[in-house]
Every structure is written in structure tokens, then in C-alpha cells.
Amino acid sequence: MRDVFHEQLDAVFGDLATICGQVETAVVQATKALLEADVEVAERVISSDEVIDRARVEVEEKCFELLSLQQPVATDLRVVVAALRMVTELERMGDLSVHVAKIARMRVPEVAVPGEIRPTVARMAEVAGDMVHRVRQIIVDRDVSAAIELGRDDEIMDQLRRASFTQLLGDDWAHGVEAAVDIALLGRYYERIADHAVSIANRVVFVVTGTDPRAVEA
Amino acid sequence: MRDVFHEQLDAVFGDLATICGQVETAVVQATKALLEADVEVAERVISSDEVIDRARVEVEEKCFELLSLQQPVATDLRVVVAALRMVTELERMGDLSVHVAKIARMRVPEVAVPGEIRPTVARMAEVAGDMVHRVRQIIVDRDVSAAIELGRDDEIMDQLRRASFTQLLGDDWAHGVEAAVDIALLGRYYERIADHAVSIANRVVFVVTGTDPRAVEA
């Protein structure tokens, strides 16, 4: 049987997985709002962010309680601090989804993403959403090999971002400055969501193995 | 005389102030590289970031030592965790300065910022640099009223960012997509630097008073 500290820590990681699921919904729905110019979906993403913010505060309180009452040292201490950092990153990922939803809302009834660059943006969104989906499962299973694999997929996002710039800055771009600025910022938001997913996966590796797969920071 | 815990905590806050000074240099120099298309200055900002990264790791280790050996509870515990968060934010501000320097380097020998929008970008950079400068002093002095004042100045950055979009998206914009995309991303980077400065200032308020001036997160 696990001791009180580890039971409470498991509860915290359960909460992190739940929040990660909420973030996944935010990313997927923000993308839907973006690609379909759906203002209601955009509004829902924006207003739901407060659920994630509240959940973060609760996890932080649980972590402080764990630190205060259980006084963990060595690896246990670092695991609680890792949980605190993971929840901060999840909250940021929620904020970034809100930024995507706000660009969608700003352009309604137009779609912010012109047809010819839609496949690239849709793919970025898909990669980001998939990374969030997988990191939730990585938190649940404490799956080190899946976490290390996720880190490698970061390169795909970099390639997509470069591809989007090639399109935006090419002679064929006929959609003007506004659409280009939207796409550049959207690319930045999806890239940051992916970065945070990788960082969280690395923290799971640390939680399980006690060593960082690389120097990670959010 | 202060006890060992508070002496060590003071040392950590001294380190935070030092790192904040390094971040200020990074912001100022990245801006210089940007506005003067100075590739050497850009390279220096990019390579110096590793100094900030190393300093962050050292502060983190000191914080873990404090938590492990001194086992602080209640407010003391929260102050150490606040210090851990502050150093994470300072490191991000360094990264954001590197992003600015990389845009500068990419456009050399051209200046990435066209003349007519230069005053707006220069003002954004100045506001961000000034906020970093002030937050360093706020860390040194634990100055609550200066910290609260800093929070109010965030609005200036929002106004500048809106002004930059008005210029980019106006009919008079004659510098094409590439420059517009650069300016939009630069605006985002300076805005994030300012956000982090406000967040750090709020954490100082918490460290001194035990209460957050508002729900803050980085």
C-alpha cells in the first residue's frame, strides 16, 4: 500500500491529467472555431478558460499542502515542484488556445486562414492537439518511452512553421498582410503549445526516473 | 540578526536581481541589434543566453536546498516557490530577447523594422526594457508600491501593440508581408517580456505582503 504522501501525489497527477484533457478540448475547439469561422465555438473556448485557471489554483493549493504537511525531501520534493510547474504550463497552453480562438473570432464571418495555407495550419493544429492528447496519456501512464518519443516530434512542428513562412513570404501569396500576420501569430501559438507539451513530457520522465532527459524549462 | 533560512533566501533574491540585470542587458542589446542591423550584437545576445540559463539552474538548486534542508512552511514555503517561478520567468525573458536578436540577424544587412514603424517598435522595446530595469530594482528593494505601479504600465504595451497593428494593416503600409510578419512577432515578444515583468513584480508583492495583488501566473 502506498503511503499518504504518494496517495496525495497520485491525486495531484490525476488532476493534471484532467486539466490536460481540458486543454486538449480547448486546442481542438479553438482550431474548429478557426477553420470554420465559428464564433460560438470561439466564445466557448474563451469563456471555458476560467475552468482551467480555477483547476490550476486547486492543484497549486494541493501541492503547497503536500509540501507543508508532508515535508518531502530529495526526489519527492522535486516531483511536487515538477507538478507545480506542469500545472503552470497547462494553464499557459489554455491561454494560447484562447489566443487562437480570439483570432478566429476577430475575422468572423471570414475564415482567418486562406484556403491555400489551410492544409499547413490544419496540420500544425493537428500536431499540437495530438501532442496534448498524448501528453495526457503520458501523465496517466507515467510512460517514459512515449514521453521521449514526444520530444522528437517537436521537429515536425518546426518544419510546418518553416513551410508556413515559405508560403506567406512567397511571390504567390495573394492574401495580403492581415492574413499573413494572423498565420504567423497562429503558428507561434501552436508552436508554443507543442513546446509546453514536450516540456511536460520531459517532466514526467523526471518524475519517473529522477533525471531530466535534457535541460528543460518552460 | 536574520536566521539561516532568511539569509539564504536573501542570497537567492540577490541572484534573481543579478539575473534580471542580465535580462535587461539582453533586451537592450537585442533591440540595438534590431534597430541598427548589428549582427555582432545579435550574436552576442544569442550566445550570452547560456549564462542566464546556467544562472537559472544555480538558483533552482539553491531553492531546492532551502526547501530540503530548512523545510519551510506557510509563507516561507510560498516565498521559495515564488523564487523558483521568478527565475523560470527571467529565463523565458532571456529566450524572448534571443528571438528578437534572431529576427535582427535574419534581416542583416537590412534593418528588419521599416522607418515609418520604427518609433512604435522602438517605444515597445523601450517600455519592455524599462519594465525589466524597474523590476530588478523592485526585487532589490522589495518595493511593493513600485511593483503595483509596474502592473498598471502593462496597458501602455497593449496600446503600442494595437498601434503597430493599425500601421501594419493600414492602406499606407508599403513594406510587404515579410516586414509585417517580423513586426507582429517582435510585438508579441516584447509584449511577453512585459507580461513576465509584471508577473515578477506581482510575485514580489506576494513575497513581501503574503497576498497576491491579483491572480498571477506566467
Describe it.
Chain A has 218 residues and is mainly α. Chain A has one domain: Phosphate transport system protein phou homolog 2, domain 2 (Methane Monooxygenase Hydroxylase, Chain G, domain 1, Up-down Bundle). Chain A is built from 7 helices and no strands. Chain A has helices at 4-36, 39-70, 74-107, 118-141, 144-152, 154-168, 176-209. In chain A, helix 3 packs antiparallel against helix 7 (176-209) and helix 4 runs antiparallel to helix 5 (144-152). The radius of gyration of chain A is 19 Å and the shape is elongated. Chain A starts with a helix and ends in a 9-residue tail after the last helix. The model of chain A has no long low-confidence stretch (mean pLDDT 94). Chains A and B meet through helix 2, helix 3 and helix 7 of A and helix 2, helix 3, helix 5 and helix 6 of B.
Question: How many helices of chain A?
Answer: 7
Unreliable stretches of chain A: none
Number of domains of chain A: 1
**What percent strand of chain A?**
under 5%
Biggest sheet overview of chain A: none
Greatest chain-chain interface? Answer: A-B, 32 and 32 residues
- The percentage helix of chain A is over 70%
User: Per the principal axes of the C-alpha atoms, what is the gross shape of chain A?
Assistant: elongated
Q: Based on DSSP secondary structure assignment, what is the total number of beta strands of chain A?
A: 0
Please give the CATH class of chain A: Mainly Alpha
Q: Roughly how many Å apart are the termini of chain A?
A: 34 Å
Class from helix and strand fractions of chain A: mainly alpha
* Assembly context of the chains: homodimer
In round numbers, the mean pLDDT of chain A is 94
CATH topology value of chain A: Methane Monooxygenase Hydroxylase, Chain G, domain 1
Order of helices and strands of chain A: HHHHHHH
